[in-house]
Amino acid sequence: MLYHSTRSGANPVDSARAVVQGLAPDGGLYMPEYIPDFDWKKCLRSDAIAMATQILSTLLPDIPQMDRLVQNAYVGKFETEDLTPTVPVGDFTVLELFRGPTSAFKDVALQMLPQLLTKAKDVCGEKEDIMILTATSGDTGKAALEGFKDVPGIRITVFYPDGGVSKVQRAQMVSQEGENVTVCAVRGNFDDAQTGVKNIFAAAVDGKLPAGNRLRLSTANSINIGRLAPQITYYFKAYADLLKRGQIRMGDKVNFCVPTGNFGDILAGWLAKRLGLPVGTLVCASNANNVLTDFIQTGTYDRRRPLHKTESPSMDILVSSNLERLLYFLSEDAELVAGLMKQLNTE
Ligand SMILES: *Cc1c(COP(=O)(O)O)cnc(C)c1O
Questions:
Q1: How far is the CA of 261 from the centre of ligand 1 (A)?
Q2: What is the pLDDT of residue 311?
Q3: Is 141 close to ligand 1, i.e. is its CB under 6 Å away?
Q4: Given 106, 142, 198, 237, which residue is catalytic?
Q5: Is the pLDDT of residue 263 over 70?
Q6: How many CA atoms are closer than 13 Å to the CA of 201, on its beta-carbon side?
Q7: Sign of torsion, CA 184 188 194 196?
Q8: pLDDT value of residue 138
Q9: Structure confidence at residue 214 (pLDDT)
């Protein structure tokens, strides 16, 4: 299945190549050309591991042996066999995503991504080492470091905003073990760190990196489709739990409220819906950095505002990368998206 950039339909790549590259050469994010048919009812009757296998092999069909990759990623790594339990709390049901090795919900994706990337690298015949560059506002860093530590053929560098992550998160990162890991504090906020990473990618595409630094670069942020896709699974898992407990009937719509930063998690919910899951409303929850709330309510994305440091640093983001994918899905107009992203950057 082919993927192309949100900013241009030209130069599509297969799903393995999209995972290896992370970001499209024009700075856009990779999108599947179409959403394939998916037996979502069968998926709901499966356990969490089989759900992940079905979803990932549908969206990333050029990566073979998906069942084994999923086993490697998850079996024995999470506190509970079902990976992401749900717990009724009053009128709500809470989906517990923190049962993985680093207690970040990102473990669901970042235990999987190294498996996908290593296999995709093989499929693409990529011999050089891959260097993962990742900006983090807190949780991604540790979860990515843990996922990629000592993975052969891959190295990882994590950039975090100095003073912008919690003490625990900083301690988790700077004490990371592994021969292939580097952690780096950046003077600035998360957006500065993320922009810096995007600039390094742009420099690499233009051949402007100094000689000797010509590693293949990729990313573990949710701009990588290999990071985003594994997150779709737990929407199905949550729905299946509600079915099992008799709280809903097959086909009933379920609303999800998703704490949002880079818009990856909530976009995975949107993809779950596109794959057929009966999703009602996706509620995009913000903290004081409510640029997305404003955008959804007014249609204007205005990043010209101070970034507040809050108790939820993973949501302290003004430039929410994956919104670009939603804009593309809704408009199916790469030229429009390219123009809007440029405007956001310069104006
Ligand atoms: C990463 C993270 C978020 C934001 O998720 P996105 O996919 O970036 O929108 C919110 N809360 C916590 C605790 C996180 O770790």
A1: 5
A2: 87
A3: no
A4: 106
A5: yes
A6: 25
A7: negative
A8: 79
A9: 62
Residue with CA nearest ligand 1 atom 2: 314
Distance between Cα 328 and ligand 1 center (Å): 21
Q: How do residues 278-300 score in pLDDT, each as one tens digit?
A: 999 999 999 999 999 999 999 99
* Of 265, 290, 312, best ligand 1 pocket probe by most atoms within 8 Å of the beta carbon: 265
User: CA 33 to CA 24: how far, in whole Å?
Assistant: 14
pLDDT at 285: 97
Which among 230, 222, 243 is positioned nearest to 324, based on CA atoms? 222
Query: Does 261 contact ligand 1 (Cβ within 6 A)?
Result: yes
Q: Is residue 253 very low, low, confident or very high in pLDDT (cuts 50, 70, 90)?
A: very high
Q: How many CA atoms lie within 13 A of 32 on its CB side?
A: 20
Protein residue with its CA nearest to atom 12 in ligand 1: 314
Check if 105 has its Cβ closer than 6 Å to any atom of ligand 1: yes
pLDDT, position 209: 74
DSSP 9-68: EEEEEEHHHHHHH-B-TTS-BEEESSPPP--HHHHHTS-HHHHHHHHHHHH-TTS--HHH
Average the pLDDT over 186-205 and give the result.
Answer: 88
Cβ of 273 below 6 Å from ligand 1:
no
Is there an atom of ligand 1 within 6 Å of 264 CB? yes
Our answer on whether the CB atom of 104 is closer than 6 Å to any ligand 1 atom is: yes
Active site residue 208: no
Q: Where are the beta strands (DSSP E) in the chain?
A: 2-5, 8-14, 30-32, 86-89, 92-95, 130-135, 154-161, 181-186, 216-218, 254-259, 279-285
Q: How far is the CA of 207 from the centre of ligand 1 (A)?
A: 33
Q: What pLDDT score was predicted for residue 198?
A: 84
